Amino acid sequence: MISLSTQSVRMARLGLDGSTEPGKDLVAQDATVCIFVNDEPYRTLVASPDMVEELAWGHILTEGLISSADEVEAMVVSPARVDVTLNKSVDIQAINVGRSTLLTTACGSSRIWGEEFNLSKAESARKVDPVLIHTIIGALNERSTVFRETGGTHSALLYREGEGVVAFSEDVGRHNALDKVIGSAIIRKVDFSECILASSGRLAGEMVIKAAKAGIPTICSVSAPLLSGIRIAEAAGVTLIGFVRGRRMNQYTRL
Question: How far is 63 from 79, CA to CA, in rounded Å?
Fold first, then answer.
């Protein structure tokens, strides 16, 4: 099924026997989304062209530009551009320089501490329920229709205890998918402290930072964690669970 996030393209199937069979394939779309803050260019993202408003909300929160939705006076959304007006002044150049340093450190440093990223301890006191985590990952996989059609997307899901699935997104980037579900929850005024985040992507440091900045106490994924993700999760008090496949999973923090 063709949607805003997919497009049918021509292709040819090639066989090892030299055969060529013309056909069509469904591929995941990607497009640029430019975010302007207080009339200044802030960030250009390459993302799936849906849930653009949710992407912007989640991105400015998880990147530390805002700490709450109350700091946003207005947000005007068009298909390829989002204009954000804050009720405070920000130094965009300094923020972007800081972001480059943060990502380099998170992905490559052997010493990562939560205070370097202004992370507070998450309220993650409850014991992990493997059955619940298995169910949440099942819901993530079930909803990932664009991935099944194209093989070209990542997905993220936010689950709130007592309510169930509160947000879901697929995107060509795992960071974007995470930002979109967080942005959707911001719009709905969801309490992140009662949520579990599920992802299809590997849990690197920058992914855990985004979740921790939103105040999400538990993250799970079908994929592997990286060492940077484990160390940041430990510093932030986040429960990190990877390799949720079949009837098994690995818990890496808050053991």
Answer: 21
